[in-house]
Design a protein that fits this description.
Layout (H helix, E strand, L loop, with lengths): L7 H25 L4 H4 L13 H10 L17 H33 L4 H20 L8 H9 L2 H8 L5 H11 L1 H24 L1
Helix pairs in contact: 1-4, 1-5, 4-5, 4-6, 4-9, 5-9, 6-7
C-alpha cells in the first residue's frame, strides 16, 4: 500500500490520531504508575509532533506497518514492578483498540443520521483502520514494539537482558518480516477478528 494516493489528505489526520493516542496512552499509564519520566520528556501530550519516529512513520505510511517514537520510562519508578511495565506496554495497543471502537461508533451514527459527506467518512474510516493496525502490529514481540516489552516482563532477568540486546536491530528485523510476509500473516487475521468483535458491538448500540 504505497502511500501517495488521492486519499493522502484523509490518511494524514487519521495516522496522526492513531500514533498520538498510542503514545499518549503509554505516557499517561507510566505517570499514573509513579514514573514522571514521560512528563519530563515532553511526551505527556496530545501534540503528535513529539511522538513521531521518522522510520516508523515511513513504514506505517508505505506498508501499513510502523511505530512511533517509544515513550521513555524508568521501570524502577513504576509501581508493581514487571506488572507495571506490562501495564504501560499494553496501554498503547489498548488505547488504539478503544479509538478504533469509538471511530466505528461515530461512523455508524454519522451514517445513520446522514450527517456527513464522503470526506468525513474517509477520515473516520482511516482513523478506524490505522488504530486497529497499530494496536495489533505493536503486539509483535520485536523491539521497539510493545510486544517485546510484554515478553521481556515474563522472562528471568538474564534472559530478558539477552532478549533486549536485539533492540538496535529491531527495525531491520521488522522490515525483513514485512518483506517476507510474516507480519501480514499475523496481522490480518487478528485485525479481522478484532474488527468483527467491534462491528458486532457497534451493531447492537447504533
Amino acid at each position: 500500500m504505497f502511500g501517495f494516493d488521492p486519499d493522502m489528505v484523509f490518511r494524514i489526520p487519521a495516522l496522526l490520531i492513531a500514533l498520538t493516542v498510542h503514545e499518549y496512552a503509554h505516557a499517561r499509564a507510566a505517570v499514573s504508575l509513579g514514573d514522571p519520566t514521560p512528563r519530563y520528556a515532553g511526551r505527556l501530550t496530545l501534540n503528535p509532533i513529539p511522538h513521531l519516529d521518522p522510520i516508523g512513520l515511513i513504514m506505517l505510511w508505505l506498508f501499513r506497518f510502523g511505530w512511533a517514537k517509544p515513550v521513555p520510562i524508568n521501570p524502577f519508578n513504576l509501581r508493581n514492578g514487571r506488572w507495571g511495565i506490562m501495564t504501560v506496554s499494553l496501554a498503547g495497543p489498548g488505547a488504539n483498540i478503544v479509538m478504533a471502537f469509538v471511530s466505528a461508533v461515530v461512523f455508524g451514527v454519522v451514517a445513520k443520521l446522514n450527517l456527513g459527506n464522503i470526506e468525513i467518512y474517509k477520515v473516520i474510516q482511516w482513523t478506524y483502520t490505522y488504530n486497529l493496525i497499530l494496536a495489533v502490529f505493536n503486539l509483535i514481540p520485536v523491539p521497539p514494539l510493545d510486544g517485546s516489552q510484554i515478553v521481556s516482563s515474563f522472562l528471568p532477568p538474564r534472559q530478558a537482558d539477552a532478549y533486549e540486546r536485539i533492540a538496535p536491530y529491531g527495525p531491520f528485523i521488522l522490515m525483513a518480516l514485512v518483506y517476507l510476509g510474516v507480519v501480514g500473516a499475523f496481522i490480518y487475521p487478528v485485525e479481522a477478528f478484532i474488527g468483527r468483535i467491534i462491528s458486532a458491538i457497534v451493531a447492537l448500540i447504533v
